[in-house]
Amino acid sequence: MFAAGHDTRKSPMPEWTDVAPVSEFGPGQSRLVTVAGVAIAVFNLDGSYYALEDVCSHDGSPLLGCGLDQAEVMEGDQIICPRHGARFCIRTGAALTPPAYEPVPCFPVRIQDGMVQTRDNRWD
């Protein structure tokens, strides 16, 4: 039994967050946004958009948000942790090299009215 006044309905799904207009987010570019307190790195790889949590699964360090230029932390479809060199696949979040063995969470990306958007869907 539930206590009086207990609401058993699911909370509303997280809202989509604007990242950038498609016209200003070309291939090879990336953006960093915060969604409900979570840093999310969004990438345009050859016209396809990908988003992953901006955190190394090895030690919790930021990846894209580390303060270095994008060219120093990205190589092809991989993002490289600047602290210990762990590599992650931008397309899947998979850990590709030690010292990281766990993937980083990926998030959905959509284009809505010419705007690239993402959201944290882990609590759906």
Keywords:
globular, mainly beta, Rieske Iron-sulfur Protein, single chain, 1 helix, 10 strands, three-stranded antiparallel beta sheet, disordered N terminus, four-stranded antiparallel beta sheet, 124 residues
Order of helices and strands: EEEEHEEEEEE
Radius of gyration: 16 Å
Q: What's the structural domain tally?
A: 1
Return the structural class.
mainly beta
The number of E-state strands comes to: 10
| N-C termini distance | 24 Å
Main sheet, how many strands, which sense, barrel? 4 strands, antiparallel
Mean pLDDT: 90
Classify the fold: give the CATH topology. Answer: Rieske Iron-sulfur Protein
In CATH's first tier, which class applies? Mainly Beta
CATH architecture: 3-layer Sandwich
- Strand content is 25-35%
Count of DSSP-assigned helices: 1
Helix content: under 10%
Strand sequence of the main sheet, in spatial order?
2-3-4-8
Spans of at least 5 consecutive residues whose pLDDT stays below 50 are 1-11
The H-level CATH homologous superfamily, spelled out, is: Rieske [2Fe-2S] iron-sulphur domain
Q: What is the global morphology?
A: globular
What is shown here, in short?
With 124 residues, the chain is mainly beta.
Provide an overview of this structure.
The structure is a single chain. Helices cover 3% and strands 35% of the residues. It is mainly β and 124 residues long. The protein has a single domain (17-118), classed as Rieske [2Fe-2S] iron-sulphur domain (Rieske Iron-sulfur Protein, 3-layer Sandwich), CATH 2.102.10. The strands form 3 sheets. A 4-stranded antiparallel beta sheet has the order 2-3-4-8, with no helix packed on it. The protein is globular. The model is unreliable at 1-11 (pLDDT under 50).
